[in-house]
UniProtKB/TrEMBL annotation:
Protein name from the UniProt record: Variable surface protein
Lineage: Eukaryota, Sar, Alveolata, Apicomplexa, Aconoidasida
Classification via InterPro entries: Plasmodium_Vir
């Protein structure tokens, strides 16, 4: 059954408020998603992960109104739990109810990039639009580095899934470095990779060490009694 038949479209489009129209569309989509998962033999958690990140992207459409964000989060989690009660624990853990839309947008950007990176590498190897792809990779590398500067978000664990996925995608460090040095020589690979040890930089540990060193330096400046 098509969730976007005429009756459903009319029902959702009758909603005058943009947020409620969006929530109507999400609710109708979730009602039929299991049917499509079965039809196309898609991994159910993978499909729901994709939807969750799509939901994060939709939040950008409703602005920074806290009440609207709260309503969106509550409605979306209810819709998902109603349709997939057997995955309630997984969904409640996976879906991040952050009121910081920037965090959720960053999560989506990282997720989208990491899921398409295999195709990006293929395009680089074929020499197609290398500058565009290289700029995209460079942007994501900077974003990956920048999220580690957001201490509160990092400490909350909001980026844990994306960081683990990033490490998995770039686990063959030597191979990735060789490809990017050849195809995208202008990218600052030192942001992400420790070339000497052929590993992904342990940015979390570097940040913690830097914080301790700064604290120690501050203590040394305190006048002795």
């Amino acid at each position: 059954m098509n969730p976007w038949n005429t009756d459903v479209r009319v029902k959702c489009n009758l909603k005058s408020d943009k947020l409620y129209k969006m929530l109507c569309q999400i609710e109708q989509s979730l009602k039929y998603i299991r049917e499509y998962i079965t039809l196309f033999d898609v991994d159910i958690k993978m499909a729901l992960d994709y939807l969750i990140y799509w939901f994060y992207g939709q939040l950008n459409e409703i602005g920074n109104n806290v009440n609207n964000i709260n309503l969106f989060h509550n409605k979306v989690t209810k819709y998902m739990n109603d349709e997939f009660p057997e995955l309630q624990d997984y969904l409640n853990k996976k879906y991040i109810k952050s009121y910081n839309i920037k965090v959720l947008q960053n999560k989506k950007k990282l997720y989208d990039f990491l899921n398409y990176y295999i195709y990006i590498k293929d395009m680089l190897s074929k020499g197609r639009n290398n500058q565009d792809y290289c700029n995209y990779i460079g942007y994501i590398f900077k974003l990956y580095k920048e999220i580690h500067d957001d201490y509160n978000s990092m400490n909350s664990g909001w980026y844990d899934d994306e960081i683990e996925l990033f490490k998995t995608k770039f686990s063959d460090v030597d191979k990735e470095i060789n490809l990017l040095e050849e195809k995208c020589p202008h990218i600052n690979l030192n942001l992400i990779f420790d070339k000497n040890n052929k590993s992904i930089r342990l940015i979390e540990q570097e940040k913690s060490k830097e914080k301790v060193e700064k604290t120690f330096e501050s203590i040394k400046t305190i006048p002795q009694v």
